[in-house]
Amino acid sequence: MRLWQAAQICSAMLALSLMLTSCGGSNSSSTSASSVPSPNASPTPSPTPGTSPSPTPTPTGNATVIDHVEELPWLTCGACGNNGGVGPTATYFDTLGIGTPSEDGSATQFSIAASVPFTNGYFYQKHTPVTTQIGALTYEFGLYVPTGSENLPQAIEFECQQILNGWVYNFSWQALYPGNQWRIFDYGLKQWDATGLTVTRFTPGTWHHILAEYHNDTVAHTVLHDALTVDGVRMPVNITHNAFFSGAVNNQFTNAVQLDSNSTAAPYSVFIDQMKITYQ
Questions:
Q1: What are the tens digits of pLDDT across the range 152-179?
Q2: Residue 88 to residues 25, 84, 257: CA-CA distances in angstroms?
Q3: Is the pTM here over 0.85, yes or no?
Q4: Between vectors from CA 153 to CA 149 and to CA 154, what angle results, nearest 5°?
Q5: In angstroms, how far is the first alpha carbon of the chain from the final one?
Q6: How far is CA 239 from CA 48, 56, 85, 175, 256, in A?
Q7: Which candidate, 200, 129, 198, places its Cα nearest to that of 161?
Q8: Is there a contact between 251 and 129 (Cβ–Cβ < 8 Å)?
C-alpha cells in the first residue's frame, strides 16, 4: 500500500483508540485501505494544475515551527503500509541519535528488511492538531542514502496531513524509482498522480536537502501542492486536489516517512536529519 493508504488505515486505528495520514506500500506506492495501482500498471492520469499563487505563500516570523522532528519518537503500524493494509509485515525500524552520518550530530536511521517483495514500512508522528486553515506549510529535511542502497528502494515517501473537522488534507510525496517519477497522492481518489517532475536518484554517501511546500483551503476543501525543492532547485508544482471527508469529525496533525521495498525485497536504510515542519 502507499503512504496515503497507511495513513488511512492508521487513522482508522487511531480513531478507534480516541484516529494519520498515510501508510502504504506494495508494487505500487502511500491513508485509507483501497488499493493503489502498481508502478507497472497503466499510468495514472496527470492531475490538473490548480490556481495556487506563484510564488508560493511562505511562512513568516509568526509561523509555528516544529524543529528536529526526526529526534522525536516515531510510531509504526505493522502492515498498514502494504497495499490495502494487509499481507505480510516487513521488518522495519528506526534508530534515533545516529552520530555518523549526520548533519548536526544526531540523525535518525530508517531501515526496512522485507522478506516479501513490495511490502513496506510506515513511520509517523502525531502533533498538536492545527485547528485553522494552513496558509503555508513547509516540510523539510536532510536525506542521506548510504553507498550500496542508491538503487534499492521501490519508493521513498513522505507527508504531512491535517484533519480538520473530519476533512482530510493530505500532503504526500513519493519518489518512485521505477520510471524515476515524483508523484503526489490524491487522497479522495486513492491514487498517485504524476507531477511531471523527474526523480534524479540521490547520490549515495552525501546529504541531500528536500523541502516541500503546501497550503490548503478549508472553505473549498482543497489541498494545494505548491512546489518541491531538491538540493536548492525549486520546482513549482501548483496542483490542486480535493480534500476528503472521513465522516469522523475530529482534528489531527501528523507527519510520516515510508520506505517501500522493491521486487527483490532488498533491505536498505536511509538517514534523515534536521527535519522541520513550519506552518501558519
A1: 999 999 999 999 999 999 999 999 999 9
A2: 11, 12, 19
A3: no
A4: 160
A5: 31
A6: 6, 12, 27, 17, 21
A7: 129
A8: yes
